[in-house]
């Protein structure tokens, strides 16, 4: 177990006033007020940085910024920490200063340009030592000076092996995280996706489920289910449910098999505190707890698992004026504190507000992989995309090829690239095997031995590993065809199990691509307001997103009311205000609201709750619930919003309910602040997702939402705090 240095014991420089960075090249002068502006201008142009006003306006200005950056000494970067809006070194920035100071002093006089030259001539072992002396800001600044060849060349030199039941990151290996997500956590569907992934040689890194419902009961049940599947198949791997860290710790207390502990991270304290509901102290506690109580405490050398990706800080409006690559590198500096078993990068997951097209996604992934490896992290990569962005499957595949060349430790296995719960597109087990055959890689050695015994792989007399007779056939793990059929019946978007070499058969690919095209089209459907008025007497509130383009490109516009709508709303002091918005799928609204809304209204009225006149808000985002709650003085806002379309035409109809509880009572707000560690918290959220005929049916969802609303208002809490209270009597 690693000893964690207390935050207060980490030495940090005294905050300084911003410097002005200038240079003159040929006949042009360039000037950048402050290190944040310089770092932003030096990067390639990305949607998030453009939206944040940090990207350079043109390539000439960008090269001017890079010229200045190249001339800065590492000592200068050390002496100028990136401060938050209050002029503080926040906790994430402070953790980044927990470096090898003796080694840093030896390289501190080097400029970034000189450091680049040193690294290009260094061995992997030498690079790793240098990385221990760098902060995230230094790693990000260096990444902005590297071209594609250099990002790949340098990253592949740095090995970062880790060990639990399996050993990841060894030379000649390429591992896989098996992700069997299901829209309603149906254990049959999860089982089929697990067995299919294992048959493809995937899952040697971890079998990890993102739960549709993040409660202790549900997460503990999924963990037990995954544990049974692992034992039944005999696969040497580890399991994880990617719920909130607080939920996982509660499961551990109940005796659930928590083997690898997961949490999403970000690069500013404001983001991790107010959006992810975590602090460095909480992560420290989680690390120590798992080292003492975790199911693999006597087996694993590492046991923490983090997911990151460029753009979350900007998307939440909490990037502190720092560009996306730099906040991502600061995230890695935080992850490094816990010597993790896995770090998974999902740049591309958010959407067009952060990465508009293939080029932006590909370059960001290469930067992320390099920065993580330089800082000593075991980087798994998940170049991914959503259907409301301009990123394509082809662009994603280009990224996976380049990252495999760069030495990524592992990829995801999302069956047929389609996540059935999170509505995005990632790498598949077919992709993993294709890359293994292109780059002559194998799974982790412990997993390979098992897969050879199962006939999933075979080894030639000369030692060459290739696909075996059972590769890609999940039926080998089923007791009968009837069992397989029952599992298949519960699994959406399973278009077939026929393969052609390491790829899906052509008929499977064509069905997959058509469904994806149909789902992408749903993003551009419009709300039919007249039709919705037939269901309920909606009043309309407009957001600051004037059209679909601005709505997709800038989430902040959809989170705020336009001035006219804001002025028209007055305090009504109702218990519940229902709001309906198209979000990213108008089709989700039209397919679910007619059946959901009457049941929801009946349930709320039966509970004796007062309701405001329902609101229809085109081009809305989740955080629109907050200005509506404040303007109307509603205790609870139920926002029913279309989610980004998933992997098939049916999944493009997925709706979610965000229940935003307003912390108006000072005593309640104080309790919420104490629970979250966020003294400024104003709202707590509960979420019910995947509402559609292939997930949670809309009529049933109406009852579930009403019940959750009653729980929130009676317990005066939502989100993680509500779930904790529900375990205790009133």
Indicate the radius of gyration in whole angstroms: 25 Å
Tell the overall outline.
globular
Largest beta-sheet details: 6 strands, mixed
Round the mean pLDDT to the nearest integer and report it.
Answer: 96
By CATH, the topology of the largest domain is TIM Barrel
**How many helices does DSSP assign?**
32
Number of strands: 22
SSE class: alpha/beta
Helical amount among residues, as a percent range?
Answer: 40-55%
Going across the biggest sheet, name each strand in turn: 17-19-18-20-21-22
Q: β content, as a range?
A: 5-15%
**Architecture of the largest domain, according to CATH?**
Alpha-Beta Barrel
Number of domains: 3
Distance N to C terminus: 40 Å
Low-confidence stretches: none
CATH superfamily of the largest domain: Aldolase class I
| CATH C-level name of the largest domain | Alpha Beta
How would you describe what is shown here?
This protein has 730 residues and is of the alpha/beta class. 44% of the residues lie in helices and 12% in strands. The protein has 32 helices and 22 strands. It has a six-stranded mixed beta sheet with strand order 17-19-18-20-21-22, sandwiched between helices. It has a four-stranded parallel beta sheet with strand order 7-6-5-12, covered by helices on one side. A hairpin with a 2-residue loop joins β15 and β16. The chain is globular and about 70 Å long.
SSE layout and pairing:
Blueprint: E1 20-25, E2 28-33, H1 35-42, H2 47-51, H3 59-71, H4 74-79, H5 91-96, H6 101-107, H7 112-120, H8 124-131, H9 136-143, H10 148-155, E3 162-163, E4 167-168, E5 175-178, H11 187-199, E6 206-209, H12 216-233, E7 239-241, H13 245-253, E8 261-264, H14 269-274, H15 280-293, E9 304-308, H16 312-315, H17 324-336, E10 342-345, H18 358-374, E11 379-381, H19 393-405, E12 410-413, H20 429-439, H21 445-453, E13 457-459, E14 465-467, H22 481-489, E15 499-500, E16 503-504, H23 506-522, H24 529-533, E17 539-540, H25 548-553, H26 555-558, H27 563-568, E18 576-581, H28 586-606, E19 615-616, H29 625-632, E20 636-642, E21 655-662, H30 666-676, E22 683-691, H31 698-715, H32 719-726
Parallel strand pairs: 5-6, 5-12, 6-7, 8-9, 9-10, 10-11, 17-19, 18-19, 18-20
Antiparallel strand pairs: 1-2, 3-4, 13-14, 15-16, 20-21, 21-22
